[in-house]
Amino acid sequence: MAESNNSRLETFCDGVFAIALTLLIIDIKLPASAKINTSTDLWMAIKDLSPTIIAFLLSFTTILITWVSHHNIMKLVNKSSPQFIYANGLLLLSIVFIPFPTALLGTYILTDHAAPAVVIYSYVNVWMAISWNLLTRAALRPKHPLVTNERAMLAMRKIHRNSYYSIAINTSFAILAFWFPLLVALFICVIWVSWLIIGMNIKEG
């Protein structure tokens, strides 16, 4: 019964991740006001969409890595609890919220109003890190751990410990973004791309 519940939970989560990924593409379109009379006009209009496309790729990478990490965590547990389910819900809430700051980044990142967009995006990452912290904490409850074995316990503890670093780093980014939005946005991109590369090269033991 517990395995069935976890299976349903993971299936539900996969659906939420898929919808969030799909929603990201909605904002990538030429504005209705764009006047396209020549091929050059079209190329220029596409060029103007570059910040939106970059923001899309960043958020797609973020959600993809989060989905992979969530999938790996679900392999470490064999049962669930109310605390685990609600912490999981908080993580999903951060995922479905990502399209909004993504749209802000695409619209304002190269303007004088970039700071609010980057601050909000950074705080979504803080929110996500807190969700990971609560999710792993729920899985590691001393009296009722949800993990499958001792090896899974060690892996979950490592993820839980790393979540504190993620909270600290992203909170620092959110604060610095008030003054250095472009630099912070660049660091965020580098971190997520690095995680993508690391994740692609990890071999299962």
How many domains comprise the coordinates? 1
Strand content: under 5%
User: Which descriptor suits the 3D outline?
Assistant: elongated
Which structural class best describes the helix and strand composition?
mainly alpha
Overall mean confidence score, pLDDT? 91
Please estimate the helix content: over 70%
Low-confidence spans: pLDDT under 50, at least 5 residues?
none
Separation of the first and last Cα atoms: 28 Å
What's the count of strands?
Answer: 0
Described by strand count, sense and barrel closure, the largest sheet is: none
Q: Rg, please?
A: 19 Å
Q: Secondary-structure element sequence?
A: HHHHHHHH
Question: Please, how many helices?
Answer: 8
Keywords:
205 residues; mainly alpha; 8 helices
Word description of this protein:
The chain is mostly helical and about 200 residues long. The protein has one domain. It has eight helices and no strands. Helix 1 runs antiparallel to helix 3 (about 50-75), helix 3 (about 50-75) packs antiparallel against helix 5 and helix 3 crosses helix 8. The protein is elongated and about 65 Å long. The protein starts with a helix and ends with a helix.
Please outline the helices and strands.
Layout: H1 2-23, H2 39-48, H3 50-74, H4 82-97, H5 99-108, H6 114-139, H7 150-176, H8 181-201
Helix pairs in contact: 1-3, 1-4, 3-5, 3-8, 4-6, 5-6, 6-7, 6-8
